[in-house]
Design goal:
Elements: H1 10-16, E1 22-33, E2 47-57, H2 62-67, H3 77-89, H4 99-111, E3 133-142, E4 152-159, E5 171-185, E6 198-207, H5 216-227, H6 235-250, E7 263-269, E8 281-287, H7 288-299
Antiparallel strand pairs: 1-2, 2-3, 3-4, 4-5, 5-6, 6-7, 7-8
Length: 300
């Protein structure tokens, strides 16, 4: 079996797609999924899932546009939607599927092959052909899988090399997101802000994630637990602390730290801090390896 391509930073994939101009997109297709962990960490409980798909075409579908009829140079959004719903709602035999398993099977159903290039046995006729498609991006969002936030999502993105080069994608990204976790904290430099808690909104993105299990529920619990003891004066200090919490968690207390760990983005907003603005915000992207090196340096 051909090995899966190494995980690629999402920003590098975005840059590789700059020269393509044709895109077919389906957003937030409503489905029901059974398997991935819910907000309490329970598996095999039915919950809503929103699926989005973006298909980047190698070139403008000129014949479809000229003939005003669907041709082989295009991907029809209706067929794409039906294929997504069919894949997501069929059971995975003899397994308790994680969110990653649901999404990777959807990838295989749409492409006819897994990310490692292995042909998808007994799968439906592939809708996404690498001769036509340059990139496929799939995002599965669980809006009810968070006790504190607005949901979690997992995205996989693959860029296909030129036709004939290889079966699977030449670049592949996996990104987990926890959106808008609400946390009451004492935070701020002003005297009034030190007297009581205010809500902050924390969003986490973990790019190049190699853990295929449903880590979002225990990660949220760990963030809430450790953040509850913090009382920083600045957003910058809070974000720095949160990046350390996330980095330790995804590397299992630094035991799984590699030469280049996952890229972690932490964004914190203070909605009530500025009365006439939505929210001041500070955002930071760091590599878990760099956070580990920094933590070791501080100990010396």
């Amino acid at each position: 079996m051909t090995p899966s391509p190494p995980l690629t930073p999402l920003c590098k994939i975005r840059a590789a797609l700059d020269n393509y101009s044709a895109l077919v997109r389906v957003r937030n297709l409503q489905t029901t999924v059974v398997g991935p962990a819910d907000a309490w960490g329970r598996q095999m409980m039915p919950q809503p899932m929103l699926v989005s798909a973006s298909v980047t075409l190698r070139q403008h579908p000129a014949s479809t546009a000229a003939d005003d009829a669907l041709g082989s140079d295009a991907v029809h959004y209706g067929l794409l939607s039906k294929a997504i719903k069919t894949s997501v709602e069929k059971p995975l035999p003899e397994q308790v599927p994680s969110l990653d398993m649901v999404l990777t099977r959807l990838w295989a159903d749409l492409c006819g092959a897994h990310a490692d290039g292995q042909q998808h046995a007994n799968g439906p006729k592939p809708l996404v052909h690498r001769d036509t498609v340059a990139c496929l991006e799939l995002t599965a969002r669980l809006p009810k899988a968070s006790l504190r936030g607005e949901g979690v999502s997992l995205a996989i993105v693959g860029v296909f090399a030129h036709p004939g080069a290889m079966v699977g994608p030449s670049m592949y990204a996996r990104t987990l997101s926890l959106d808008c976790l609400k946390m009451p904290l004492v935070i701020g430099v002003n005297d009034n802000e030190r007297k009581s808690q205010q809500l902050v909104s924390v969003s986490i993105q973990i790019d190049m994630l190699d853990d295929l299990s449903d880590i979002y529920t225990p990660l949220e619990a760990q963030l809430v637990k450790e953040a509850s003891s913090l009382s920083p004066k600045t957003l910058e200090s809070l974000v720095d602390s949160l990046t350390h919490i996330v980095s330790r968690f995804v590397t299992r207390q630094w035991h799984d730290i590699a030469e280049s760990g996952p890229n972690i983005t932490v964004m914190v907003e203070k909605p009530t801090a500025v009365p006439f603005a939505d929210a001041p915000c500070f955002q930071l992207t760091v590599n878990a390896r760099d956070v580990y090196v920094s933590s070791q340096t501080r100990r010396v």
